[in-house]
Amino acid sequence: MLLDVRNAVKRFGGLTAVQNVSYTIEPRTLNAIIGPNGAGKTTFFNLITGIYVPDEGSIEFNGRKIKGLRPDQINRAGISRTFQNIRLFGAMSVIENVLVGMHTQLNINLFGAMSRFPTFQAQERRAQAKAEQLLEFVGLRDKANEIARNLPYGDQRRLEIARALAGDPKLLLLDEPTAGMNPQESLDAMSLFRRVRDDLGVTVLLIEHDMKVVMGISERIAVLDYGQKIAEGTPDEVRRNPHVIEAYLGRSTESN
Amino acid sequence: MIQNAQPKANPDQMARRSAIFFAVLLAFAFLLMPWRNATSGPNTGMGLLRIGTEYGAFSLLIFLVPLAALAGFAAGFSQRIAPHSPTFFQIAARVGGAAGLIYVAVAMIYGLQTTGSVGGMLSVQGMGIWVTLFTAAGLIGLTYNPNVTFIIVWIGVSFFFVQGIRREMTLFPLWSSIAFPMLTISPFLVLSIKMPRAAQIALLVLVVCVLLPMVGIEDTFYLELIIQISIFAAMAIGLNIVIGFAGLLDLGYIAFFAVGAYLWGMFTSTAADTVFKTSNALASPDAFWLFLLLGVIAAGITGVLLGLPVLRLRGDYLAIVTLGFGEIIRILVSNLSNISSNPIRRVNLTNGAQGLPGIAHPILPQGLYDLVKSIAAAIGVPLNTQSSVEAVTLQLFFYFLVLTVGGIAVIIAARLDNSPIGRAWTAIREDEVAAVAMGVPRVRMKLLAFAMGASFAGAMGVIFAAKQSFVSPESFSFIQSIFILVIVIVGGMGSIRGVLLGAVVVTLLNLQVLKNFSLLINSLKNLDWVVPIINFPIRNWPSQLEPARYERLVFGVLLIVMMIYRPEGISPAKRRRMEMQEAADQTLEEAAAEGAPRPGMDKIE
Question: What is the 3 state secondary structure string of B24-49?
Fold first, then answer.
């Protein structure tokens, strides 16, 4: 098991955003979490990545307890993410964004940076080369020196994925990665997610509203509603699950 | 559109602009000549009016060569402006240019013969302007590179302008506040104008290491000014790491300067008896270099100590706490004079509000004094007394020391900016949540920024205490922190060059220009000058309204004007400019979303 969340609870005042959710991910799988707006999906992501600390429950990653670690420590442990509303470093160049994502992979040495010894320069060159490879992988190689903010929307999403991959994560969390994309862009994105898993061996967990994407690539789907996990299984199982249909379409009422 | 198809600044426009500039400069040089004669003694003048009367055969050259050189000068430009003009102009340009250079060579030899040294020749009044202009004319004629010529003329004219004006002149304060800033900003012109790298470095070294010290030897006020500028520049480089790179607003930065200054002061002052109750200073002046290092370390540690509790705060809250910290340090040093209530076991560390007098200077080798003395004699400013030799040597030593340390600071800052550390700082500044999610350890990187910034101030503090040989809490007041902040903001946050330029502009404004306007009003008062048209006798100008008292008003107005018209600073970092642009765009988008009319909307079809 790569990720093992047990009975995670997160409350904000009187609101319980995540209620007793247990969730596991196997290595090298493509997983999705779906659910109506406000179901607690992003909060669940924030629990895993350490932005919030769960009030109850435990989170283990790769056999190691990560609950209570800082977000940067969790990133170092091998979980990387993208954001629902793209959070690139807008004024930095495309390649610089990727290089920041590589922070945990680099030897951060003040005196190396000040002296520019050959070891430091060699590290910079390696980082640069690796960043270029990653940009090639997501298809942004020729835009390496553009300013991140000036990229078209779809490219910004790709760049966020490249940046998240730069830290050599074992698990990649994608928060609504195809939101706002047109059908063709969504298709490209889906093939990118598959290549992330197949070529790089990175386990993927995504939150998504676009059912075509979710059903198209996920191997396992979990459904959250009102902070609770109401269903989990293969796309077919989830599609037929009455709880899921109810959560999405609403319960049939007397008057209807 | 056709206008848009053209590049913004093409060589032709550039040349035209330079041509206009040269014309103005030339007129200016002609104007300058008579003043110099009017105020300098016989045999030192070589201004316009005396040409041909004192220099015999040489005067023939003086009349003929300028014409040839100016022909070349103009032809050089016409070649630039109209690239397809006949070769006649090219030939004229080359001939005129060569003539200009020959003139310079002859003038130099002549100067050598008459005064015994090239330095002596340069100090002959009025000569410098002509040498500069003809060198420039020669260069432009021969190379068609108006950029290099432009900057040489600028440097030369401003240098000889500074040298030419004398304190006795009524309008000295006015001329001096034009001439000296012209010279001190010339390094930035060198940097901003396109030219070969080697020429750039040579000109920078020329101005910073030769011309400015020369001016300083002649008039120690200028020497003091350039030291102050360099100290503030080095500190602004440090503050720029904290504010510009990492985006942490620090309003108590001067505290780190105080740490360095008091570190050296406490150990070498004659006033502070120490914990150990020895009557002598604890450290010998030889320990200066060690303490310079200790100052860096002590200030760095102080930076970390301040950073640890406050770095969880953001924005305004962080600013307020750092402001408080700055005040704490100042109040601490004014109260560490009487630590025990028992008068016999009284411990005095800082001598309180009276400050520490008699702080040691570092000991310089005798050879340095001799060197300075002979250099001064060579450029025609004999230092007659032993004390003035010592004073000037010490000041020059501090100038070059601050330059060196500041240069190291610039290199370190630039290298950090272009390293994983600098990228992490930028990332934190741009989006802290995303940066942390990418594995950037927020607290550690912020502490590093604080410590790096502080350590530069610490080094400058040690140098400052050794230079002034006196420190008191007054030197570390809140307004000083604001002063450095103003430098960073006016210059351009995050831009090293901008911050250096800011240091020059703001320090000169504060220490020279404003004071000079006060002096000017005083000298006009002595002349009983009456402002024409409104018939206002300047004698009635109240002393409460002296410009030197407006310092804070001027800073306030300067900041407001900058924030309105150029919020990214005079010479902004590329990245900052984009951030400012983004903020502006967002405001526009919000305005548009609220249905407010959007500026420029009508232009978009």
Answer: HHHHHHHHHHHHHHHHCCCCCCCCHH
**In this structure, what token pair is assigned to residue B605?**
């079809």
Residues of A in contact with B453 (CB under 8 A): none
* Tally of structural domains, chain B: 3
- Whether B399 and B313 map to the same domain: the answer is yes
Beta-carbon neighbour count of residue B582 at 10 Å? 14
- What pLDDT, on the 0 to 100 scale, is given for residue A179? 87
Domain, as residue range, for B199? 7-213
**Other C-beta atoms lying within 10 Å of the C-beta of residue B595:** 7
If pLDDT is split at 50, 70 and 90, which confidence band does B62 have?
very low
Q: Which of B312, B419, B574, B578 to mutate to test the interface with A (most CBs of A within 10 A)?
A: B419
Question: Do the Cβ atoms of A88 and B575 come within 8 Å?
Answer: no
List the single residue in A70, A116, A167 with the smallest CB-CB distance to B438: A167
Q: Give the pLDDT of residue B110.
A: 64
Q: Write out the two tokens for B206.
A: 């020329």
- Alpha helix (H) residue ranges in B336-441: 366-378, 386-417, 420-430, 432-437
B282 and B242 both lie in a single domain: yes
Q: What is the DSSP string of B108-155?
A: HHHHHHHHSSHHHHHHSTTHHHHHHHHHHHHHHHHH--HHHHHHHHHH
Residue B596 lies in a domain: no
How distant, in Å, are the alpha carbons of B517, B523, B543 from that of B535?
Answer: 20, 18, 19
Where in chain A do CATH 3.40.50.300 domains reside?
Answer: 1-78+171-256, 86-168
Calpha distance A156→B524 (Å, rounded): 64
Q: How far apart are CA A84 and CA B293, in angstroms?
A: 48
pLDDT tens for each residue of A16-26: 999 999 999 99
| A73-98 residue pLDDT tens | 999 999 999 999 999 999 899 999 99
B125 and B271 inside one domain: no
* A71 with B437: Cβ contact below 8 A: yes
pLDDT of residue A199: 93
Q: Which of B31, B56, B55, B58 is nearest to B44 (CA)?
A: B55
Instruction: For residues B59 and B131, state if they share a domain.
Output: yes
Q: Do B501 and B454 share a domain, yes or no?
A: no
Chain A residues in contact with B427 by the CB 8 A cut-off are: 89, 92, 100
B19 within some domain: yes
Q: Which CATH superfamily is domain A1-78+171-256 in?
A: P-loop containing nucleotide triphosphate hydrolases (3.40.50.300)
Task: Give residue A164's pLDDT.
Answer: 95
Contact B433 A87 (CB under 8 A): yes
Same domain, B328 and B390: yes
pLDDT exceeds 60 at position A191? yes
Rounded to the nearest 5 percent, the helix, strand and coil shares of chain B are 75, 0, 25
Q: Give the closest residue to A195 by CA, choosing from A128, A138, A256, A111.
A: A138
Q: Which CATH number does A86-168 carry?
A: 3.40.50.300
* Residues of A whose CB is below 8 A from B426: 89, 91-92, 96, 100
Query: Would residue B434 count as lying in a domain?
Result: yes
* B496-508 and B478-491 helices, crossing angle to 10°: 130
Residue of higher predicted confidence among B380 and B299: B299
Cα separation, A166 vs B129, in Å, equals 59
Higher pLDDT, A33 or B106: A33
Q: How many residues does chain A have?
A: 256
Question: Which range, B393-402, B515-524, B581-590, has the best average confidence (pLDDT)?
Answer: B393-402
What average pLDDT does the structure give for chain A? 91
Q: Which of residues 7-26 of A touch B (CB under 8 A)?
A: none
In-domain check, residue B205: yes
Does the beta-carbon distance from A99 to B420 stay under 8 Å? yes
Domain shared by B231 and B333, yes or no: yes
Do both B405 and B545 map to the same domain? no
Q: Using a CB–CB cutoff of 8 Å, tell me whether A106 touches chain B.
A: yes
